[in-house]
Amino acid sequence: MFVKSHVTTVVFDVGNVLVDWNPRYLYRKLFDDSQAMERFLGEVCTSDWNLELDRGRPFAEAVAERIALYPDLADLIRAYDARWDEMIAGPIAGTVALLERLAARGTPLYALTNFSDEKYVETFPRFDFFQRFAGVVVSGRVGLLKPDAAIYRLLLESYGLDPAACIFIDDSAANVEGARAVGMHATRFESPEQVERDLRELALL
Fold first, then answer.
1. Contact present, 146 and 170 (Cβ < 8 Å)
2. What gap in Å lies between CA 53 and CA 75, rounded to an integer?
3. What are the residues whose beta carbons fall under 8 Å from the beta carbon of 95, sequence distance 6 or more?
4. What is the sign, positive or negative, of the torsion defined by CA atoms of 122, 125, 127, 129?
């Protein structure tokens, strides 16, 4: 599956690989009816709308636009910004443990994440493991999104990385394929145990 001798560097996605993010962690507190919550997330604060936040759209602008369309839901929409931190349940302990083991071995570690820069800046201090990365590319900071080849190339060029020497870990199949398309090794995150097996196959652990 992998060419062991060539892989020296590990690139992590952040959301749902290292931190457990889901807007439902917040909105379950705000809705009594789960079906109403799903309608809200499917029709108002949608995944496509959130993706534009990850691309760098300011939260204030995006929230104002949604409130103009759905004024009766203004408080729920504002919560997407004001209480965003409640969408993170915490670190995914098993993956963080792998990250720490890799760091202890001196493995070069990087992150490539679809993440609002506004929220990344707020989230960074919450988790010590962010300090393990030699470099990070945040989509909202650079105005590019995975799986666009340009964002992977930006990571590689910014830090002088050989794509064939990198393995990328992401929970999205499309993002994994995006990494492979630029010559990186990649594996789709399913569990920390599965990632550990893949890293062992590469002799990284």
1. yes
2. 19
3. 12, 17, 18, 189, 192, 195
4. positive
Sign of CA dihedral 148, 151, 154, 159: negative
Give dist(CA 11, CA 152) in Å, integer: 10
**Tokens, residue 35:** 């079906």
What does the alpha-carbon distance between residue 32 and residue 29 come to, in Å, rounded to a whole number?
Answer: 8
Residue 40 CB: number of other CB atoms within 10 A?
Answer: 21
The DSSP bridge pattern shows strands 135-138 and 9-12 to be unpaired
Q: State the amino acid at position 83 in one-letter form.
A: R
Of all helices (H) and strands (E), which one includes residue 97? helix 93-104
Tell me the whole-structure pTM to 2 decimals: 0.95
pLDDT tens digits, the chain, 205 residues: what are they?
A: 555 558 999 999 999 999 999 999 999 999 999 999 999 999 999 999 999 999 999 999 999 999 999 999 999 999 999 999 999 999 999 999 999 999 999 999 999 999 999 999 999 999 999 999 999 999 999 999 999 999 999 999 999 999 999 999 999 999 999 999 999 999 999 999 999 999 999 999 9
The radius of gyration of the chain from alpha carbons, rounded to an integer in Å, stands at: 18
The angle subtended at Cα 54 by Cα 89 and Cα 166, nearest 5°, is 85
